[in-house]
Design a protein that fits this description.
Length: about 100
């Protein structure tokens, strides 16, 4: 449950595996969901993408791919990125991501 927000967070098996492998804690993912720097819509998958700084990542970014259903975030993938601008620029230029805010 996100602090101060009546929304839950569920993680897919893939997302949980990526968290373990990459040493990312759930609270870091939930912080990005609660206070993202940017949010995109992925036109290919139909999912949202929240982007925020990784608290313990020394200049790294977290890219959180999720769906919203029944007031619950369903996290399907989490990526730890060193260069956010390169990833976002490529997906925006190709029309895959549309900036929501």
């Amino acid at each position: 449950m996100l602090c101060g927000v009546c929304m839950g967070v569920e993680y897919s098996g893939h997302a949980l595996l990526r968290l373990r492998v990459r040493g990312i804690v759930k609270s870091g993912v939930e912080e990005v969901l609660l206070s993202p720097r940017e949010v995109y819509f992925d036109a290919v998958t139909g999912r949202f993408v929240a982007v925020g700084e990784r608290a313990a990542g020394g200049g790294h970014w977290l890219i959180v791919v999720y769906d919203m259903r029944d007031e619950t975030y369903h996290v399907v993938a989490v990526v730890d990125a060193k260069s956010l601008s390169k990833i976002a620029r490529r997906r925006l230029a190709g029309g895959r991501w549309v900036k929501v805010w």
